[in-house]
Write a structure and sequence with these properties.
single chain, tt1808, chain A, globular
């Protein structure tokens, strides 16, 4: 009488044979696929290391810009705008004193307000430029050639806050690396006389160096 083990042997042999066949088939398929020409190669003029790279189609830049401008115009036409002051009262007082001092010391210089750093600084590092592009200086002294020379920051009551101090540190370092001087006028501490002496020292020194 055959035992249960004898009845199981044919089934086991069939399973092993099927498994070996499957592994063999997968191996052969891989070999064939590796030998098949790649779809991104130029089969007509194939040479070693000659690969034709496909790039996705990019929309035409002028058309894309026109579409963005049209969308922006649609949004603006549906909104209401109001004029706002570019300087608060404290900044405006410093601007007046600074402007009078500059005119008295060197009439060829000018004072500009709320100037974007992205307009006066260049940087080949796009990431670094993005850090300063939208930041502004309160007041900027420019010479007769409209070259930025000195930045004047008005520090009000909230200038000791961590966020404001961190932003000022970024601006100060970028200006320093560009060779633009950075000075602070502190509310309640810097007097008009001190501001005039600062302008005389900065603009007057430049005039003396040029002559």
């Amino acid at each position: 009488m055959p035992s249960d083990l004898d009845a199981f042997v044919p089934t086991l042999q069939f399973f092993v044979a099927a498994l070996v066949g499957a592994v063999f088939g997968i191996t052969i398929s891989g070999v064939l696929l590796r030998g098949r020409p790649r779809p991104w190669r130029n089969s007509n003029s194939w040479k070693r290391n000659n690969v034709v790279a496909f790039e996705p189609e990019r929309p035409d830049a002028p058309e894309q810009k026109q579409a963005v401008a049209a969308d922006q115009l649609r949004i603006v036409m549906g909104a209401d705008f109001e004029v706002r002051r570019i300087l608060n009262k404290g900044e405006a007082r410093v601007f007046d004193e600074l402007n009078r001092a500059v005119m008295a010391c060197n009439a060829t210089w000018h004072v500009m307000a709320q100037v974007s750093l992205g307009e006066i600084l260049r940087c080949s590092d796009r990431k670094a430029y993005g850090c300063i592009n939208s930041k502004r200086v309160d007041l900027l002294l420019v010479d007769a050639d409209c070259m930025p020379r000195y930045a004047i920051e008005y520090q009000g009551k909230g200038h000791h806050r961590s966020a404001a101090a961190a932003r000022d540190a970024v601006k100060k370092e970028a200006l320093r690396r560009a060779g633009i001087g950075y000075y602070e006028v502190v509310a309640g501490q810097t007097t008009p006389a001190e501001l005039r002496r600062l302008v005389e020292r900065l603009a007057g020194k430049t005039v003396a160096n040029r002559t």
